[in-house]
Amino acid sequence: MNLDNMNRIKAICGLAGALLLAFTSLACQSNEAAAGSTGSIYAQTPSQNLRESFSEVIFLTRNRGLALGVSGNLWITTNSGQKWESVRQFKKSERYKFNFVNSQEGFLMIDEHLWSTTDSGATWISVTDFKDILESEMVNLDGIFFIDAKSGWAVGGKYSPKRGMEGLILETTDGGRSWNQQVIGDTQGIISTRGGKWDLRDVCFVNPKEGIAVGKGVVLSTRNGGELWQEVKGLEGIFEDVHFSSDKVGWILEKNREASLITVNGGRDWKQLKWPDANAADSVFMDSRFPSLLSKVTGEVLISHDIGTSWTSSGSETFATKKKPSDNFAYSFLNRAFDDSILLTRILIQEDGDSVPVTTVVR
């Protein structure tokens, strides 16, 4: 999923180039957004100043959202981000990942430890420590996706002295209590073309059978629920995130966010899509049903009516949130909630160093 928190901390300190996408769709449990037009913006709600910034944000409904701070604090809002309340402390980490299957049931992965909730994040139960299951400390898991409360996948990398670091895909059918490793075809070929160093960063399924996993220099595809994963040939890059807004339209973001791969046929074919200028995308949503939305690291928001082929400004007044010229945007989160609401949360870093989450209800 995602850039590590060290990069996010750098962004907070003024290196606004640090990027993050935490993208939760109903189809892919990735944050997504859509806007019918700039006139569909309902409300923009700057919240209270916080002494830490958010590493991960997800909205379950138009009103209820969850966020994890860089220190491990779990925050909850019940009024569309107008106010956030710290409700519990998790361990401080550089890797957090929310994944909800509906507005009540969801999962949270912190490093290699999995938690679950059945009450919209109010309480959490420890489910699994992956390092205990795999009996190895040389495991990193970065991506997780559940298609329902029982069936899910986790991806990352595992190191061995003989083979080096290579990708790892795990599957569960009991809500994360037990996991089985899935087969990746032609791993020797992948290793030989990448110098023995590759891992996976994110995974997404559009239905119980068809899924995509992405990572360092590799895109994998399955058509049988992960019984066998095969490399998608001809795609090069360090891929961080994969998302689908429907069973046809999906996109893969590169690490530097300067370009994306897009598919309109469920991942069978991919083409490269570049952004309109050098300012990389922070969060992005692509769909054929609604105008696409792109939030840039500069704080500007662009809209596309042709699935990213061309972009126009949403209008500076629509998302204007800076109070002073010295304020900076660190990163943003696009969410489509389970009640079909669309929300954009951007982290505004003020001159005094305080972080202000600013949530816009897009639809």
Q: Can you give a write-up of this model?
A:
The chain is mostly beta strands and 363 residues long. The protein has a single domain (5-361), classed as YVTN repeat-like/Quinoprotein amine dehydrogenase (Methylamine Dehydrogenase, Chain H, 7 Propeller), CATH 2.130.10.10. 7% of the residues lie in helices and 43% in strands. It has a five-stranded mixed sheet, with no helix packed on it. A four-stranded antiparallel sheet has the order 1-29-28-27. Strands 2-3-4-5 form a four-stranded antiparallel sheet, with no helix packed on it. The radius of gyration is 19 Å and the shape is globular. The model is unreliable at 1-26 and 29-44 (pLDDT under 50).
Write the topology of this structure.
Blueprint: H1 5-12, E1 43-46, E2 54-59, E3 65-69, E4 73-77, E5 85-89, E6 96-100, E7 106-110, E8 113-117, E9 125-129, H2 130-134, E10 139-146, E11 152-160, E12 164-172, E13 180-181, E14 183-184, H3 187-193, E15 200-205, E16 211-215, E17 218-222, E18 228-231, E19 239-244, E20 250-254, E21 259-263, E22 271-274, E23 281-285, E24 292-296, E25 301-304, E26 312-313, H4 316-319, E27 328-336, E28 342-349, E29 355-361
Parallel strand pairs: 14-18
Antiparallel strand pairs: 1-29, 2-3, 3-4, 4-5, 6-7, 7-8, 8-9, 10-11, 11-12, 12-13, 15-16, 16-17, 17-18, 19-20, 20-21, 21-22, 23-24, 24-25, 25-26, 27-28, 28-29
Describe the structure concisely.
This protein is mostly beta strands and 363 residues long. The protein contains four helices and 29 strands. The protein has a five-stranded mixed β-sheet with strand order 14-18-17-16-15, with no helix packed on it. A four-stranded antiparallel β-sheet has the order 1-29-28-27.
